[in-house]
Amino acid sequence: MERSSNEMQANAKLTREQHLDLYYFMQLNRQLEERMVRLFRQNKIVGGLYASLGQEAVSIGTAYALEPRDWLAPMIRNIGALLVKGFKPRDIFTQHMARYTAPTQGKDGTSHFGDLKVRHVVSPISMLGDLIPVMTGVAMAGRYLGQKIVAMTWIGDGGSSTGAFHEGLNFAATQRAPFVLVLENNQWAYSTPVAQQAPLKNFADRALAYGIASHIVDGNDVMAVYAAAKSAVEQCRAGRGPVLLEAKTMRMRGHAQHDPAEYVPQAMFDYWKTQDPIARYEAYLTEHKLWDAAKKSEIDARIERELDVDQKFAEESPMPPPELAEQGVYCDGCHTVEADWRRPKQELLPPASSVEPVWKVTDFGAFVPSAPAAIAAAGRAEKPGAKPAPTPLAEPEAAPELTEEQPLRVPFGRGPKDRAFERERLEKQEKHRKPFVKHRRDKRGKH
Amino acid sequence: MAEITMLEAIRAALFEEMERDPAVVALGEDIGVYGGAFKVTEGLLAKFGRERVIDTPISETAIVGAACGMSYLGLRPVVEMQFMDFIACCFNQVTNFVAKSHYRWGAPVPMVVRGPSGGGVHGGPFHSASPEMHFVHTPGLKVVYPSTAYDAKGLLKSAIRDNNPVLFFEHKFLYRRIKQEVPAEDFTVPIGKAAVRRPGRDLTIVSYGAMVHTSLEAAAALAAEGIEAEVIDLRSLLPLDREAILGSVRKTNKLLVVHEDTRTGGIAGEIAAIVCESAFEHLDGPIARVTGLDTPVPYAPPLEQRFLPNVEKVAAAARELAKY
Fold it and tell me: Which of A31, A436, B17, B273 has the most CB atoms at less than 10 Å from its CB?
């Protein structure tokens, strides 16, 4: 497993403008949410309000590592990623206020919206983990169409306990899909602490079980997050398969606005307050002389201006007409479904697409004492008072080693009607019959 | 025109659609090298390659989820459930992610989930179910259930070309038991249109899937007794061809619904409600139904026979109804 390192940070070169972009998006994310808290208290948010206070660096740093052609799907606390992808504060305001001008026209709320054509954003659903297989499919389709894209989504420490997380990440791994999964470990899943989800110090360790790469990063350090995400995206684009990126951070509010989060120890909030991602990044920008007080004021004023305009737009927007409830269940020609082909279609049609339908079996899967097993045994033995590791049983005969070039080929279709298989079976029988018979004769001769 | 089985007709539709449009891809468990548990996809991998015919891990949620993601980029994935019973494993993906996508945020999901369904082959409680009504109750999905080889080919082509998610139920009892002359050239059967399989004047039998054949056999027996039953094959359960049902009931004035699915919450109840709402004055008798029992599908042949509707049960119900 790789961990975020200085080397990675050095590779993530950003211009001054890009450094200021990161600040702009983080501060926009925070100020937008602060305004929505006020709107919630005024009863102008018709449903729930889920804040990402303290987690802005994760949404912004990861999404900023993507290119416009890449795809992402936000979770409930990733409106920052939507802002990076080009959605405007008015989209977020109107979604929460259920206005007709919202991206979903009031049919769904919060960050539950997307854009297939321009911004390449898939709308999330409330059931956690389901985005992981969906974004795996996005990554696979992008590769299939020759688009060289990367797909990214987020999951929490809590959401990583779902079956969909396992199925999706495992499928992405077997497909070596260009897919980055950001595991946003914010310590709390609603009221449940992370230790109740899994007895793991690092959730990134799970990557080992899927045979994929992983990184762990300080989720409140936007530069570190960006560098790790950039490296993960590059690894995916190079065709080296999915990456699990764990960002350690803290949810600084309750699950949603109604939840005062009294179950969180005050000392924990106090600690993480000292790790505030925006305060840390402001210090970073000052330390590296990337801005001055005037520049900060300029950006902050721009944010206030934009939020003023968009909030006003949302508050003046109408609610949807009731009859909209009955519309749009089905696509009746209102949308065209068209793939953006970046490779010749002929490659995917016969005869070019035709293959020999066989499995390549490269080893027999027999038990081989491996280094990790030996280490585990040693670890047990080292514990004081622990029983010594049991002596391994006699080693089984080593299975023959097969190479990629000369794999064992399993014939296609083992159904009763498959003549080829039957023929091969008979041929094999024929081959083995003679020496067997000879052997028996030899035995008989000795007696 | 060659006479082919329903299974071969489904396979032909897959081959033709994949040849016609490289956006069509297939995903499922054991569908590639092995050719599918029922050999529906046999030969597909050899012709179209590993990028288009994807052998997946045993992960129904991942398969349907990935297919949904693929469809967002303009592909038209066809997912095989090894048995339709296993669609329960990805219920959330189908009903929450896929079905609501277009309504919520205008993202069409042009995908097909197809697979063998239904009983009569001693599959037991987990390989015989008729889970179609879970999905008929889910706005945003289309649910198709052919009963002939011709319809299977034409409806599967329509399903693949549809911009909405279509669940395509294949009755496994019919796979190799029915044969029909099916054109080798391209044709489609529209989703949402029922077919009159046998005209009649005395009562209407509405059915779908394997029970269409049971109903037709019963109708033939009834004809010998002078009762002329009209048999309607729904072909699609969602959208439902209300006009075909109502038109027939207005003519015969009596309705019997036959389905293999369990009784409570089966489509017979919905059809009865539609007829009561829109053709009540035309009814000369109570709406009758012959259905599977409200139990899981049992394994032992005598138990399974007890569960399933059959010609005798349908004919008996029709005789009772004809007395009105």
Answer: B17
